[in-house]
Amino acid sequence: MSKHELFYLYDVPNHDEIKDKLLLYFDELTEKHNLCQNPSRNISSTDYFHLKGSPPYKPIILDNLVPIIIDKLLPVFYCKGIEFQGCWFQQYNKGSDFSYHNHPRSHFAGIYYIELPDSPTEFLGFDSPTVNEGQLLVFPSYLVHKSPVNNSDERKTVVAFNFSITFKEH
Ligand SMILES: [Fe+2]
Hints:
Number of strands: 9
Bound molecules: fe (ii) ion
Helix content: 10-25%
CATH topology: Jelly Rolls
Number of helices: 3
Largest sheet: 6 strands, antiparallel
Order of helices and strands: EHEHHEEEEEEE
């Protein structure tokens, strides 16, 4: 039996292929829905407050990230299926950040790092894992975490999502 870890880090094999497609979606959605307007949060653009549920780029996430979880994470827990519980994107220009929070009502959260100049995710009470652009980080949803201030001139972009694991196939 595989040892359980707190953080699971996976390379996304098709990162170079899907990165540009996803960024195009985010640009279009930002312009169409004015997603730069997040008065309560210091995030440069996110669809979290506007399009939560089934955004147009969701098939890319389901096709490229979920198989990684099914192949690599589920066997660790003797599980066979996942309940995908929504995804959203977040972009951070220089000076932007997202304060401490966690993700209730799911077993795990995933963060796919699409653009990562610096400022990887920080976890309260734990050493933050080293991550690189093109990687998927999975962790228990109760862990409190934040996106620290982006001090780089380059933009940071992630897709985050929640899921639970089940003994049934879906
Ligand atoms: Fe989060």
